[in-house]
Amino acid sequence: MPEQPPCEQIPVPARLACPGECRADHPWRAHHDRLLDVETDPDAVVDLFETAVTWSELEYPEETTIPPARWVEFAEKHRWRDTERALRIFSLAADAALRGTRTAAPIVALGKAVGMVAGMGEGICPTLAPATPPRHLRVAP
Length: 141
Known about the structure:
By secondary structure, this protein is an all-alpha fold. The protein has helices at about 30-35, 40-55, 70-75, 85-100, 105-115.
């Protein structure tokens, strides 16, 4: 049998065109393409949630990273095999990421809503009698 020449591999672009009409030359493009892999690559889902849970702790470069506040919008603008599942993934990831950046204001508002910030003894969880001053215990010799 005669030897056949090795097959030449023709380079194929990773993404021909973005269905969301995103610019190919945008600095976010690498992150954009990784987000598009969420539906088909389990590692991309793990990467997304790792980014989400560390968003408030680490500094991600704004020039090259799509922020969590835009993840749901990103999911809505792109085509997916299962749109509902993609929206759920991005919504959960965005919620996890943005929980770490919220201030205490919603907690105070929640307290007011259930009556916990009103006067002592009011609301659904009345306070108990004021605590006595702390006592210092002595260790027996």
